[in-house]
């Protein structure tokens, strides 16, 4: 899997230690309401199209770029669906990472979904009520945000956050 040069440079200084990154998830839906998933080559699990935001890159542009690189589709992000923190992860090479993730609901403009790089073993369109069992909880959260009939982005607010009101509206925001 190609590691962005800026990450390679950071890793030269911090080794495999935890790295806080900005990421995007593109929840790509087709005209039948199915969602596109990739079968990842690193962990052999199904996942939404996702990736790292490059320095100076707009998050929506990152979602478009990742969809093209990973699955060969031209997409249009329709809205920011959610903002949240994904659980910490460790890549096969030992690199530790955690992502602040921006989730976009997207539609296809052109192309046929295909494996377009070495990050995926397969791609497939899935009905939202027939998702693979190994689709992770945070992936399902991103999907739920994108499927919500909301005009605003979803987010999580934990009650343990200092200064949080007891009656906050967790799960949604402007």
UniProtKB/TrEMBL annotation:
The keyword Hydrolase applies. This is NUDIX domain-containing protein. Pfam families: NUDIX (PF00293). Its cofactor is Mg(2+). Belongs to the Nudix hydrolase family. Residues 19-148 form the Nudix hydrolase domain. It comes from the Bacteria. Gene3D superfamilies: Nucleoside Triphosphate Pyrophosphohydrolase. GO terms for molecular function: hydrolase activity. The keyword Hydrolase applies. InterPro entries: Nudix_hydrolase, NUDIX_hydrolase-like_dom_sf, NUDIX_hydrolase_CS, NUDIX_hydrolase_dom.
């Amino acid at each position: 899997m190609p590691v962005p040069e800026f990450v390679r440079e950071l890793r030269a200084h911090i080794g495999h230690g935890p790295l806080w990154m900005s990421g995007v998830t593109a929840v790509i839906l087709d005209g039948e309401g199915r969602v596109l998933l990739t079968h990842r080559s690193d962990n052999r699990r199904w996942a939404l199209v996702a990736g790292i935001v490059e320095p100076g890159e707009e998050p929506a542009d990152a979602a478009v770029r990742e969809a093209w690189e990973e699955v060969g589709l031209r997409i249009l992000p329709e809205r920011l669906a959610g903002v949240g923190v994904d659980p910490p992860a460790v890549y096969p090479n030992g690199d530790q990472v955690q992502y602040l993730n921006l989730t976009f609901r997207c539609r296809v403009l052109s192309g046929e979904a295909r494996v377009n790089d070495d990050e995926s073993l397969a791609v497939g369109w899935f009905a939202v009520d027939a998702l693979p069992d190994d689709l992770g909880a945070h992936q399902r959260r991103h999907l739920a945000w994108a499927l919500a009939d909301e005009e605003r982005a979803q987010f999580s607010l934990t009650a343990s956050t200092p200064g949080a009101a007891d009656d906050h509206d967790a799960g949604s925001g402007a």
